[in-house]
Amino acid sequence: MMRRRHDRPETGVFAGLLFLAVGVILLIGNLNLYPVRSLLVQWWPVLLVIVGVKHLILYRGPSAWVSAAFWIGTGVLFLGSTLGIVSIGVPSLLWPILLIWFGVFTIIGCGNVPESANGGSNS
Q1: Helices 46-58, 9-30: crossing angle, 10 deg rounding
Q2: Prediction pTM value
Q3: SS (H, E, C) the chain
């Protein structure tokens, strides 16, 4: 039987902290305490880089390296686009990168890991 990677408690903590941080930033912007909208428009790809670093820290094996490289590379590419370093717009990059992402993850099967790799079954 296969066990999903997101069954790990560390993943829930990471996602919760990420949602909490983004929510606080958006609340600060909506309360007009700080003009965060312009910062978010330029720096949102840093979230993709953070997801890639999370994959390097939490997961092991070749699929984790591929996943981390994908997230970090995509974040850097989008960040270069939003900062004006790369002259291609994010919408032009989005669909090709999504197709590449689904293709690579389908080939290497990143979604599942064998139970034996997780220390046995937990029924």
Answers
A1: 160
A2: 0.65
A3: CEEEHHHCHHHHHHHHHHHHHHHHHHHHHHCCCCCHHHHHHHHCCHHHHHHHHHHHHHCCCHHHHHHHHHHHHHHHHHHHHHCCCCCCCHHHHHHHHHHHHHHHHHHHCCCEEEHHHHCCCCC
State both tokens at 96.
Answer: 């090709």
**∠ at Cα 98 (61, 85), nearest 5°?**
95
Instruction: State which amino acid sits at residue 22.
Output: V
Tokens 């996602």 belong to residue: 15
Task: Please answer whether residues 110 and 63 qualify as being in contact, where contact means their C-beta atoms are separated by less than 8 angstroms.
Answer: yes
pLDDT digits (tens, 9 = 90+) for 33-80: 988 888 888 898 999 999 899 888 888 877 788 888 888 988 998 899
Spell 66-100 as b/e; 16+ CB within 10 A means b: bbbebbbebbbbbbebbeeeeeeeeeebeeeeeee
